[in-house]
Amino acid sequence: MGACQSFREMCDRTKNTNIRLSLPAVCVIWQTAMIILFGIFIRYNEESDIRWAEHKKLKNITSDIENDFYFRYPSFQDVHVMIFVGFGFLMTFLKRYSFGGVGFSFLLASFGLQWALLMQGWFHHLVDGKILIGVENLINADFCVAGCLIAYGALLGKVSPVQLMVLTLFGVTLFAVEEYIILNLIHARDAGGSMVIHTFGAYYGLSISWMLYRPNLEQSSSLQRSVYHSDVFAMIGTLYLWMFWPSFNSAIADHGDGQHRAAINTYLCLAATVLTTFAISSLFQKHGKLDMVHIQNSTLAGGVAVGTAAEFMLMPYGALIVGFCCGVVSTLGYIYLTPFLEKYLKIQDTCGIHNLHAMPGVIGGIVGAISAAAASESVYGHEGLVNMFKLVPAVQGGHQAGGLCVALCFGIGGGIIVGAILRLPIWGDPADDNCFDDEAYWEVPEEEESSLQILQYNNHFRNKDVVESNFTVEQDGRTRS
Amino acid sequence: MGACQSFREMCDRTKNTNIRLSLPAVCVIWQTAMIILFGIFIRYNEESDIRWAEHKKLKNITSDIENDFYFRYPSFQDVHVMIFVGFGFLMTFLKRYSFGGVGFSFLLASFGLQWALLMQGWFHHLVDGKILIGVENLINADFCVAGCLIAYGALLGKVSPVQLMVLTLFGVTLFAVEEYIILNLIHARDAGGSMVIHTFGAYYGLSISWMLYRPNLEQSSSLQRSVYHSDVFAMIGTLYLWMFWPSFNSAIADHGDGQHRAAINTYLCLAATVLTTFAISSLFQKHGKLDMVHIQNSTLAGGVAVGTAAEFMLMPYGALIVGFCCGVVSTLGYIYLTPFLEKYLKIQDTCGIHNLHAMPGVIGGIVGAISAAAASESVYGHEGLVNMFKLVPAVQGGHQAGGLCVALCFGIGGGIIVGAILRLPIWGDPADDNCFDDEAYWEVPEEEESSLQILQYNNHFRNKDVVESNFTVEQDGRTRS
Amino acid sequence: MGACQSFREMCDRTKNTNIRLSLPAVCVIWQTAMIILFGIFIRYNEESDIRWAEHKKLKNITSDIENDFYFRYPSFQDVHVMIFVGFGFLMTFLKRYSFGGVGFSFLLASFGLQWALLMQGWFHHLVDGKILIGVENLINADFCVAGCLIAYGALLGKVSPVQLMVLTLFGVTLFAVEEYIILNLIHARDAGGSMVIHTFGAYYGLSISWMLYRPNLEQSSSLQRSVYHSDVFAMIGTLYLWMFWPSFNSAIADHGDGQHRAAINTYLCLAATVLTTFAISSLFQKHGKLDMVHIQNSTLAGGVAVGTAAEFMLMPYGALIVGFCCGVVSTLGYIYLTPFLEKYLKIQDTCGIHNLHAMPGVIGGIVGAISAAAASESVYGHEGLVNMFKLVPAVQGGHQAGGLCVALCFGIGGGIIVGAILRLPIWGDPADDNCFDDEAYWEVPEEEESSLQILQYNNHFRNKDVVESNFTVEQDGRTRS
């Protein structure tokens, strides 16, 4: 008993989770930097500026409804819900890390979207030294943040909020560069971000997790589980991601048929994924019982995998086929691959992002390359082919594949470098036996009265004060019934 | 004790809930069939096809914003949320069937929407042997699924997921036929589906429940209850249904004033329902205490009942009157009718869909018939009257009433047939003492540590190992406080 | 023990929470009054009336998409979610008042929006004795309700639903008058309602709370706390308010750039608030642990404070500065001001609306006044300046400040009067030791089986019936594991 306690104290000494100075410092300084950089660089674009009225006249636009706001704002709000409620609640599944799951996502995303507006603006929207922003920039900033949230999924419960801020700073920076290379230099198309967002984000997170490998993580294994209600909370995240994924994949697609088609393809693909996920989950468990982990995660794999090709003429049955395969691959990944990765490759992946984002993201890149290479004038029409792809289909297919490689390299390379930085002993990360526990960073409310009172009562009883404890018990009975 | 156990074992032998082969088989085979049928039949329509650019020129459409996507996509996403989060979470109210409530809805709906696209397509959208789909088809598919989810409400906790798949297969088929008869042959109007969706779906489910009557269901009555937090989860479902119902009733109404008016009428009607639901719930309970079951369900009855007439010139006060009545009728139904149905008609209705969908649906059909029959040129204008109704108002009223009868017949008749099929002992449904329990089909996480530890500690103590148990208790105190 | 019980009984006698007659009476009579008044006054406007087709021709409108419905309906639905899920779930944080938090908000809002349509209609939209309504009226009605829900936040757990209905009746009335004075007589602008909604609503609620001061409220202090899962439920409310606030502030802004800019400013402002809230929360707590109360509430302060100026040319960095300050001020308010208000000013503010709405609302009014006064033709252009402000900038700034004063006066004055009315002993409010407890007004489901069974088992054991209790324990072990 004494030895145990002294060991714990030693751990507490070497691993100090007190972030009372580091977190406020990072938040305040970085936010101040954002204000300064926004002051220098960021302005409204012609559609959100008060001079829109003049702009309309110049461009002979007859109605305010032509403002891009009305094309994209509903999709933007859906994406916004995916980022904060979708990702946030998907990460509440652990029994004692729900605060950290939803709370740190909230922090990370709020910082990340500001930094993304700047980084993406410098690469894509710099006009006369100013970044002119509108609703499409907000969507892209949310997309960029999604990459970092995916990475957080691998690290959930094992890192401090300060580490997450650092992860986001570098993650957004890397994202903006790889996005620029993939979309603007290689001319790959990736409206739903299978490569740019999911492949990059997942391998970025997995590489960091590999660098931060914790050999004694089983010390907190009792907390790396869900309870009944935390699983229901996580389903809120799952369903919002699932329902709004058509908006995610169509949000920045071309006006008109582009957005329309991307939404239909994603809707269908995700529906097929649900059926195969249920099938595999039941088939590979003893007694055929379904596993909530699969339902919460693998049902979403189709949305990832159809990201690149959603705006293409994938055809409804093509979308279903992609979804069918992803449900199978992703669920099998949870059953066989996640334990393998942890045991042999030393990658601890709390949320199983390898199955939800990495593999489906790569599949999405490949599907995109194949469907681009297979594009024909009979399906697309001449005009359609020119508008959709800047290159000849076969060449476009190659460039799509090239884009996938870039995303992989940036994810793995960037993750290793950032992981090395995060290993420095200054970030306030928890000890191995303190992982997956909100106590480390949050004021956690006391337990439900009932359990506590029973405990108190029991201790009472143990001391043989049977008579005095009478009052407690009866009170208890009264307030409960 | 021994007798009890052997009885349980016998039950387990006769009722095998192991769906390890049947569920995967159904999911994989049916999904494969969907892929093949989609490959043969389903293509993009002119607004979601890449040839939209050519189509625009042909039709002299000046802007992409005229694409139906921008008229209907925000409503579609709201409807989508209603189907998956609304219905799904409304069914999480049981203490130990939240996984089944939200999970099986997810499965059922994901299959149903694919099958609905085909069935509705064959009846409504077949052009040269192809079904051309756009956002309106997605909305209609979601509507069709709503009918099956309503039916699930009566059966919640008492059927296996395989049975739900069968229920959906037949439910969608029947739905498409009755919808075709009501809308295309009888020329009734039903934008919000009071008849087509709610009346049909509710009587379909109730008839199935009647066929599957379980005389010994009280054996699992301890589980047919809510706990505090499961009631709060269910309120998520309630509120999303309530808030987005204006989108449901306006989603496929006519562009412009039609959608606008349907949304206003539904908004008002639902507000009135809330007040009378609270009134009746308090008035008929002892001590005036409100019952969560009423608040979760009866507050929604107005949305059902205003479905048919929402796009008509019902007038704002008309919408309020409909809402007023539905709150009263539906809440009284929960108090008096549900027990009556179970005791005398042998209909076990877990969620009370008779009060939430069946009665309000019939009221909605009647309100629709009356307001169509009462339509006058002074209110509608000549042009309006012609656009809204293909027939003279009095005749239209009769046809609306006819539509209601068709929905009733299909619901009851179809339910009896499908119920007979579901009685076959091959579907893996639970035994009477195993109902309302997620253990049957799900890997359920262990209980909260606190309770378990107390239990362990107690057992410890019972064995008089007072001294050895010291350690456990102290640890407990530490980790808890 | 006997004395205690008789004291409780006395309390129960003086404070009767039985609302079996009063609540139904209020609901039914007021709803009936609404129907009559709607019958007399409320009709569809030209965009929701069936004569829209004629109206289009008259006004040379070429497309249905020009209907205001398509400009505002997505924002309306977001606002609707904020009112019912946002405010409702934010108030579920108490361990035993989640039903009351979400349920009474639902009731209050459903009545309030009807009464608001009438009150605001009489002041703003009366044409030939009729109020013509469209989607903008629905948004304004929801806004008006928001004021009353804010006031409820100060009173949460301490008032009866009948009192809330009275609060709403007067609150909406006062709101409509102050709104008319501020917007139409003083010509201040306030698209996001920093003054009209938040300042008014918060001081209205705080004044009522001051009038209803309960000196012995610490008797129910054990219930004025959260538990783990109730904090997660509250995060649902927080996130929906946070995510959809851009829609709130842009919902009734000018078409085109006005809505676009308001959304961008709010998005940025809220992101900055999150960072400073986390910073201050960690900095001022012992061990740097974050407090869920701050994360749930202070992260929203930026949305309040940017309400007035969101549609102005505040500039992106301006929005960030406002957010930065509000996160700091609001979080410090929770740490220092709320205890001060309770101790010295006798204002008991359950949700801390002084920190979330009152102070940020006043800041918002001031920011609005300054940015209006500082408006220049170089930024706005001549046309923009004329469209945005009816007056010269400097004068406009003064009028904005005047608007703020009107909101404050109406809030405090109205709150004192309504508070006096609510002190009458006829409204069924709970006794001091009965506050924050759903038992008073709701049928609360029994506790989780586990705790109860343990309790029963313990009582058993206490009676030394060790042998007989064997059965219970083993059963227990079986059903649990």
TrEMBL record, chains A, B, C:
Main location class: membrane
Q: How would you describe this protein's topology in the membrane?
A: Multi-pass membrane protein
Keyword check for Translocase: no
Enumerate the InterPro entries for this protein.
Ammonium/urea_transptr, NH4_transpt_AmtB-like_dom, RhesusRHD
Similarity section: Belongs to the ammonium transporter (TC 2.A.49) family. Rh subfamily.
Q: What is this protein's function per UniProt?
A: Functions as an ammonia transporter. May play a role in the elimination of ammonia in the gill.
What protein name is recorded for this chain?
Answer: Ammonium transporter Rh type C-like 2
Task: State the species of origin.
Answer: Austrofundulus limnaeus
Q: What is the lineage of its organism?
A: Eukaryota, Metazoa, Chordata, Craniata, Vertebrata
Designated gene of the protein:
rhcgb
